[in-house]
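does this look right to u?? pyridoxal-5'-phosphate version
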Amino acid sequence: MLKVIDLRSDTVTRPSEAMRRIIASAEVGDDVFGDDPTVKHLEQKVSEILGKESALFVPSGTMANQVALRTLCEAGDEVICERKMHIVNYEVASASALLGIMLSPYDGKRGRLSPEQVRLAVRPYNIHHPHTRLVALENTHNGAGGTVLDLDYIASIEKVVKENSLYFYLDGARIWNAAVALEVEPKDIARPFNLVSVCFSKGLGAPVGSAVCGDRMFIDKARRVRQMMGGGMRQVGIIASAALYALKNNFERLKEDHVRAKKLACGLEAIDGVSIKADEVETNIVIFKIDVPVTRFVQNARKMGLLLVPFGPDLVRAVTHLDISDDDVSTAVEIIGKALSDGWKKTSDSR
Ligand SMILES: *Cc1c(COP(=O)(O)O)cnc(C)c1O
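got this back:
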């Protein structure tokens, strides 16, 4: 059987045997009553790692973001953010549809707005205006290609946030990758933010789950918001145990994913018809441009056992993760070369 190499996302990893054993033996209780010991342990552990008072386990990164937005903002408030962020593009417009919050996206460079852009975006008080309440960042920044926001940059935005008495939020679904790339602790990145979300099922390889971390006062409110959204879960130590395992065992190894992403990018650089700058690949996400219709190219690659995702009219995304080896990367480069050359002219109809 053809071995499938799945580079669509770092969410596609499957729990290892060891992780499954941990799951099978997890101690559980009813977490809505607050008595699942494994969830409590995870929330305590992750708040410690993020340097925050408290944390809340939630079923998905999307819910983490929505819980955080609803905790910090009310209907009629405005959030300043970068246009390619997850909350803008991949959450079914839920900030507006469910929360009555207006996202104001601005064009950034490699996932960054300049401090000046943020400063100009803050509205002065006026009865007609939405109330500018929050600045949201994403680190690493998926839409910009897994780019890392460094501590100096974050501090430059924090300054504007403070000057204007705003709240500061980080979508840190891939904060783990950012910390490894910057060679700092996750808490160094998390420090300036009122709330930070993190994900256990991306690079860390747990099957399910995210967390929102921050001051106890905010997390107490977030717990009520999670319940409102239907995110209160019962014997959820079953999955929290996998998240604990993932934190302990799969964090340091993320640097391997970064090395493999770089290797993939270097391989792609040498292929005719692919545009990519390998030195711009900072973590585990590789976005490359091709000169043929993306949908057909992705279908061609799939037939040869390589899964990729279209990321724009002429862009494709490949993500390295726990289940991808060095050999897989070499094979992926070969398949991408083939998917662009042979078979292409025969099937050169449009996307
Ligand atoms: C994946 C992702 C999310 C959402 O996570 P889900 O668990 O898929 O809902 C949020 N933010 C970023 C930056 C992500 O990459």
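The longest helix spans residues 254-269. idk if thats expected tbh
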